[in-house]
Amino acid sequence: MVSRDIVAQLRQDITTAGDAGDQETVQRLRRELAEAMDDTGAPGSGGHVTEATLRRLLGDGAPDARLVLSEGRVGIRSGPGDDDGGLLVISRADLIERVGDAPEDRVLVEQAAVLDTDIGLLGA
């Protein structure tokens, strides 16, 4: 399990790299933060859509990357397939259309809440 101190340090490092204009490092650190947040068991990890989940979807280079709900958990899938019976939540292309390819954290938090609410309304 990842400590909250590591999560806090990653957030600080993202800010520092962003202030320095190092977008490659920012993207790498955001992926690390997303993984750390999942490892903490924080509310919203696992079965729910989070800002970190959407950040990972945006960072996925596959043109057909998509967020899928399957067996109560959201995950990113790419490549051909029927999503193994899962429900398409949003494609990377649709997410970019909604929020742009480099949205502010606030925008992703809001979009995550919308998508999580949509899933809840479906009874999932």
For this entry, give a set of tags.
124 residues; three-stranded antiparallel beta sheet; globular; 5 helices; alpha+beta
Describe the structure.
The chain is α+β, with helices and mostly antiparallel strands and 124 residues long. The chain has five helices and three strands; from the N terminus they run H-H-H-E-E-E-H-H. It has a three-stranded antiparallel β-sheet with strand order 2-1-3. Helix 3 packs across helix 5. The two termini are 27 Å apart.
**Main sheet?**
3 strands, antiparallel
Structural class: alpha+beta
Rg, Å, rounded:
14 Å
Distance between the termini: 27 Å
Shape, per Cα inertia axes = globular
In short:
With 124 residues, the chain is an alpha+beta fold. Helix content is 55%, strand content 12%.
Topology readout:
Layout: H1 4-19, H2 23-40, H3 51-59, E1 66-70, E2 73-77, E3 87-91, H4 92-99, H5 105-121
Antiparallel strand pairs: 1-2, 1-3
Helix pairs in contact: 1-2, 2-3, 3-5
